[in-house]
Design brief:
There is one protein chain. By secondary structure, the protein is of the alpha+beta class. The chain is 52% helix and 18% strand. It contains 25 helices and 17 strands. Helix 2 runs antiparallel to helix 3 (102-115) and helix 17 (456-469) runs antiparallel to helix 18. The longest helix is centred in the middle third of the chain and has 29 residues, at 322-350. 48% of the residues are buried.
């Protein structure tokens, strides 16, 4: 069949009752001269064309046309009539056929293909979709025709390719004859759709299965409804739909669309098969069980390629408002999955040899080095990120992390020119945001660059924008809290850092967040609690030098001078050249009273310029 979407053609509706000319144009679709066709309906549409038709015509036009007429009269027309179909013929080598049901259409297609199995001349490619077809103002159009034609283009000679929508309309026995070809992006069709093939060779099936994208990829399946009440399926579907929407806001995720991942609903398919079908690394599945006003939601994140569970969790709640509960559980799932997902990618990237890494793997490995908080690790992260950005200049996540490395070099005094490093951090963050204005992480890093440049209010505004972009991004909340605490707003800062920790309690950067919580306590004068949080930060990441500053300050202000001096001693082992200047860079307090009190504590602990 010619490419129906790209070129005009004249085709004919043919049946026992009538023969009517129909024309197609790219702008309006198929147009019929039948003025009485003015309805709109769902229809099963079969598209078919003769493989290598131009080649056959070039070799022997007379013989080809004779064989074509014989095929039409002896095979196509009678078999289509037997299955209650209506044939559409176009330009001699292709047909559209409308059927009252998908089952009729598929059975007809298989009979025709079997009849031609041993024909040395004619091999057909076929595609079928069940969709909306409209007849109005002497036009006929709709996705039923367009999608069927696109699916036909996926078929190899002698085969049939159908859509997921069509597959759902057939029974298990007929469905078992089809092999999943994975999610396919069809030309001029907005949403990717899952396709299934009959009569396809093994090589063709493999060709259509997706390769894994560079970004970490995930499919969220509909949660199983384990409740006695079948009506609770809406809650299970809503949970999965909300999780998909929330994960999509993390722009370093490749998230399979709802329509595609929900196509597995009601089918017993393992995570490995889903991953192969859709070309993803991870699968998130779960279940919902409700009894009275109590609900239990279980979720599992599976690395389907490595065949192991990355994370599992169970959430028990009491229902007061069903939508509030759905939001709450969605937030918990996303808050757990996003960092676990990133951590798994970081560990996977660490096992690979650097020269063989793609842009995402280089970025993931760099993110692990950033979480180590040492000068050497930041230098290595910077080298990896430069390679990553060279491979993928459009990666806003890679650019944001590269900005982070320059900012850490500036703040910690690891750069030969801290001001130049800070300027580079701002430039890279601005570039990341301009490249993807919807990336909350990039916006948050731009806010952090403002903060350490002394523009506290600008930082707050950008971090508020980051939270609007992704209300589930813990980094945005943590950096927002840090901006607020340096402005002296310890109460609001505490609320936001609690949110960050709640969203991602095992985040790779959790040591930094514990340090921010320690600062909230310092601002509030709660020095004993500040010590606890700073020590928790050091236990997780012993290389965080500014956490030792927090331990020293709060111990000194509590009168525990021995413990304060020990903290300074531990800090000097990490950085022999450390001084009060480190505190001025790492803790840019906007209020003079906070800055003075912090410096007083450091002097009492034995730190000098």
């Amino acid at each position: 069949m010619r490419d129906y979407v790209q070129q005009s053609a004249h085709i004919f509706w043919c049946s026992a009752a009538n023969t009517t000319e129909v024309s197609y144009s790219p702008a309006v679709g198929y147009a019929s001269s039948m003025s009485n066709l003015s309805d709109r309906r769902l229809a099963a549409i079969l598209a078919a064309d003769v493989a290598n038709y131009s080649k056959l015509m070039g070799e022997d036009e007379t013989a080809t046309l004779t064989a074509l007429r014989r095929f039409r009269s002896d095979i196509l027309t009678p078999i289509v009539d037997e299955h209650d179909g209506r044939v559409i013929k176009s330009m001699g080598d292709g047909w559209l056929v409308e059927f009252p049901s998908v089952v009729n259409g598929i059975k007809c297609a298989i009979v025709v293909q079997n009849k031609l199995a041993n024909d040395p001349q004619f091999r057909l490619r076929m595609g079928m979709h069940s969709g909306d077809v409209s007849f109005a103002d002497e036009d006929v159009y709709g996705d039923g025709v367009n999608v069927a034609a696109r699916l036909q283009n996926l078929a190899e000679p002698g085969s049939l390719v159908i859509s997921e929508t069509a597959r759902r309309s057939i029974d298990a026995k007929l469905s078992d004859q089809f092999t999943c070809l994975g999610s396919q992006k069809l030309k001029n069709i907005t949403e990717p759709l899952v396709a299934y093939g009959w009569g396809m060779s093994a090589s063709a099936i493999q060709r259509y299965h997706f390769e894994l994208p560079e970004r970490p990829s995930i499919a969220v399946l509909v949660f199983d409804n384990l409740s006695d009440d079948a009506d609770q399926s809406f809650f299970a579907e809503g949970m999965a739909e909300d999780v998909i929407s929330a994960l999509s806001r993390f722009h370093w995720f490749f998230v399979i669309s709802r329509n595609t991942s929900f196509s597995y609903q009601g089918r017993t398919v393992g995570a490995e098969q889903v991953a192969r079908d859709l070309g993803v690394q991870y699968v998130l599945e779960g279940s919902v069980r409700r009894a009275g006003n109590k609900v239990r939601v279980s979720a599992q994140l599976i690395d389907a390629v490595a065949n192991h569970y990355v994370w599992t969790e169970r959430f028990d709640s009491v229902i007061e408002d069903i939508f509030d509960l759905q939001d709450e559980i969605t937030q918990k799932i996303v808050g757990a999955v996003a960092p676990e997902y990133l951590s798994a990618e970081m560990q996977r990237a660490r096992r690979k040899v650097v020269p063989r890494m793609d842009a995402w793997e280089l970025t993931a490995r760099a993110h692990w080095h950033i979480s180590q908080f040492t000068k050497a690790d930041i230098a290595e992260a910077q080298n990896l990120l430069l390679k990553a950005v060279e491979l993928d200049s459009q990666s806003s996540f890679g650019l944001a992390d590269l900005s982070f490395t320059h900012l850490m070099n500036s703040v910690n005094g690891w750069s030969d020119d801290p001001d130049a490093s800070k300027a580079e951090a701002i430039s890279l963050a601005q570039r990341a945001v301009s490249m993807n204005g919807r990336d909350a992480y990039a916006m948050a890093l731009l806010g952090a660059a403002d903060l350490f440049s002394g523009h506290h209010r600008d930082a707050v505004k950008k971090l508020q924008d980051a939270i609007v972009l992704n209300p589930n991004d813990p980094h945005a909340y943590a950096l927002f809290a840090r901006s607020q605490v340096y402005l002296g707003d310890g109460k609001e800062a505490l609320s936001n850092i609690k949110t960050a920790i709640r969203l991602s309690p095992r985040d790779p950067l959790i040591a930094l967040w514990y340090s921010i919580r320690s600062l909230c306590c310092f601002i509030a004068g709660q020095h004993e609690e500040a010590i606890d949080w700073a020590e928790a930060s050091v236990r997780i990441q012993p290389n965080r030098s500014s956490s030792y500053l927090d331990i020293a300050v709060n111990n000194a202000l509590c009168g525990k001078l021995d413990d304060a001096r020990q903290a300074v001693f531990d800090l000097k082992r990490l950085d022999p050249d450390t001084s009060l200047h480190l505190a001025e860079r790492t803790h840019p307090f906007a209020r003079s009273e906070d800055r003075t009190r912090y410096q007083k504590g450091l002097r009492a602990a034995g730190l000098s310029r």
